[in-house]
């Protein structure tokens, strides 16, 4: 099997001084010997760094013997994110297990709950994933708390826990931005970071990894052009009825205007939209308008989403999902994304939750 330079299984090479310094061993363990004879794959990200498992590249294999397997190699290029996959794994063990290849002894246990330990970066990465998972569980618990009718309090909890997640991920990425692991997590979590954080991280990325960050770099100028205090950038598209429409038909006309980037397929949009519906019904006759820009792909799904969510405010779309021009113009990397304009069309806030919008409107339209 063809192998890349990073992984040289020949034991003789490990005897060199360079090999001793950069050598790694991954010792894996399975629940029992029933997996003996199966193949374990050590995979890496493909050149696009896609998160789709189908685009992972197998670089080495090992056979399971007595419930164990081993990978040996040289980590010349520094820490790198890889994945271990068991062939013919049961359903509860199918997910690829992330492991950071770096010099040292790495222990991996494949089970319904897999573990990785033994080297500094693997330990800190596992700690990060554990903290993020715990906060995700807390967020889901808050979202499912239907008995609590204090929406403002629930929203505050969600924002605080979301901000905690973002901060711990940012801290990890910043500490590791000069290696492949940190840069990859930057790419896959860039939507969590504000402009200043993004610029700070971009400045620290190694030149050889810069090519992976073109999309992130391309967002900087649009984000700065649509920052608080700037006049809105126009949005054009078609209505659900197929008519040409633009944000400029509403913005800067003497009303507060909320630009709502959303999609019918977006779970978080469906959670937040009912609050926008309430705010719209309360303030639409008091100098407030919403203009929705949908990231849907088909008109049918878009129209069904409008009906399901009782959305009655003006709508525009290109039906081009993330490749829509307004998405690029506003540097939008996650939805829902809300941008609030004043009566003159200047941006006074962005990145608000629906509850924060309602609260803000209560101050502006007393």
Describe the protein in words:
This protein has 3 domains: 11-112, Immunoglobulin-like, CATH 2.60.40; 122-225, no CATH class; 236-364, Glutaredoxin (3-Layer(aba) Sandwich), CATH 3.40.30. A hairpin with a 5-residue loop joins strand 9 and strand 10. The longest helix is centred in the middle third of the chain and has 26 residues, at 151-176. A 5-stranded mixed sheet has the order 13-12-11-14-15, covered by helices on one side. A 4-stranded mixed sheet has the order 4-1-7-8. It starts with 10 loop residues before the first helix and ends with a helix. Helix 3 packs antiparallel against helix 4 (151-176), helix 4 (151-176) runs antiparallel to helix 5 (180-189) and helix 6 (195-202) packs antiparallel against helix 7 (214-225). With 366 residues, the chain is an alpha+beta fold. Helix content is 36%, strand content 22%.
Features of this protein?
Immunoglobulin-like; 4-stranded mixed β-sheet; 366 residues; Glutaredoxin; 11 helices; 36% helix; 3 domains
Low-confidence stretches: 1-19
Total count of strands: 15
Report the portion of residues in β strands: 15-25%
Task: Return the domain count.
Answer: 3
Please report the first level of CATH classification, the CATH class of the largest domain: Alpha Beta
Shape: elongated
At a glance:
By secondary structure, the protein is an alpha+beta fold.
